[in-house]
Each structure stands twice: as C-alpha cells, then as structure tokens.
C-alpha cells in the first residue's frame, strides 16, 4: 500500500474520530446518556422492590421480619398523610443541620490554618488523630453527662462527628495547593488576606466540598443513633419506637425515609460540586489533552 493510500486512510480515520467526538459532546447525546442512566437506575430499583414484594409472600423469609413492600408503602403513606412523618423529619433536619453547620464550619476554618501553618499542625495534629480515631457513638454517654438528655447533647455529638471529614479534607486541600500559584501571587505583592481569599480558598474548594459531603453523611448516621436515646421525636426515635411496638412496616417506612433523605442530600451536594468546580475540572482536562 503506497503512502498516498495510507495518508488517505489516516485522514478518513481522523475525520470519523472527530465526528464521534462531536456527537458525544453534543447536547442531544448527553441528554440521551443521562436518560439511559436514569432508566437503568429506575429498572434496578424496580427489580429490588419486586423481589422485596415477592420473597415475603412466598414465605422465603418470615413476613413478620420482612413485610411485603406493599405493606411498607401503605404504612409510609399513612405516616405521610397523618403528618406524623413530616413532624419527625422537621425535628431531625433541625438537629442534623445545626450540628453539621457547627462542625463543618469550624473544621473548614481550622483546616485552612492547620494546612497553611505547619507549626500549628505539628502541635494540634496528635490531638486531632486521637479524637478522630475515637468512636463517636462510644463517646455519646460522655456528651450526655455534660449536656443532659436534651437537644444540646444531640447537636453536640453530631457536631463532633461532622468535624473530622471536613477538617482532614481541608488540610489536604491546602497542602496540595500548587506552590507555583502561591509564588506567583506573592511575586505580585498580594497581601496575606488576598492570598487566602483569591488563591488558597478557590484551590481548596473541591476538597472542602468533598469534606462537606462526608460530614453530611456522618451527621445523618450519628443523628439516628442520637435520637434513639432520650428523644421523643425525630426519625431515629420513630424507627426505634416502631421497633419496640413491633410495628415493623412503620419501622421500615422510617428507614426508607432516612435512606431517601441521605441519597437526596448526597445528590444535591454532588450537583453543587459540579456547578462550582466542574468548569475548572473540564479546563484542567482540556489542558492535559
């Protein structure tokens, strides 16, 4: 095969590659890909629910321990229509949001300073490692002793659990900031405050958002356990109370609600991450290419 033929085939191949890339980058293709992904998830969830419905009815498991999904759905509807579930959701949201904001907010500020000032990290890091490796739920009796059975102990334990993911991710983000950016900013005579605000914070933002997602997940998990002790409202209380009354369908309804809230919160934070850092990630990918 002569050089002209090889060159012609190469051009045809390159044109087809560009055509495929253009189709993949088109809005129609992206919309179709999102639709296909959504349908796959719906099908997977539907199969799980069908299996859940069939297994108890065939008595492959004890229907008392695992009621058919239709019974759970009926109980969920009754809890929603009576307004009881919304009341518990509201109380749980207030507790988890307060603890999450206090914990993540303090962690981000402390993490930036620990990542930036190595001397501060050397002093504080041993205490941080000791605290974060202690089981949060095992410390709950200590919080009960200090804060009592009221709201303060629940918010305090959620705050404690929300601190560590956000703190560690923020420290990692500051340490991984490109030193060339810092040197360039300093060479232009930028102030220390402006350096933090215009260089460090934007560079650390992806790490902060990841830490926030993990802290939000921790807040929800700790919330459930905290509401099972000394509470008279909240989703954790609802699940525990229904289990004690052997109202198993209502118990599963509460668990499903908790799962739905967790998935929704995670989805919203992922979308926030994409909107705030997606453009930067795409630009970095284009530069690498």
UniProtKB/TrEMBL annotation:
Any one annotated GO CC term: plasma membrane
Q: Which Pfam families match?
A: BPD_transp_1
Q: Which residues cross the membrane?
A: 97-118, 195-214, 220-240, 252-270
Q: What is its main location?
A: membrane
Q: Does the keyword Signal apply?
A: no
Domain named ABC transmembrane type-1: residues: 93-269
Instruction: Tell where it localizes.
Output: Cell membrane
* Gene Ontology biological-process entries: transmembrane transport
Organism superkingdom: Bacteria
The membrane topology noted for this protein in its Swiss-Prot or TrEMBL record is: Multi-pass membrane protein
Q: Which CDD domains match?
A: TM_PBP2
Q: Which UniProt keywords apply?
A: Cell membrane, Membrane, Transmembrane, Transmembrane helix, Transport
- Record flagged with keyword Membrane: yes
| Protein name as annotated | Putative aliphatic sulfonates transport permease protein SsuC
The organism is: Methylomusa anaerophila
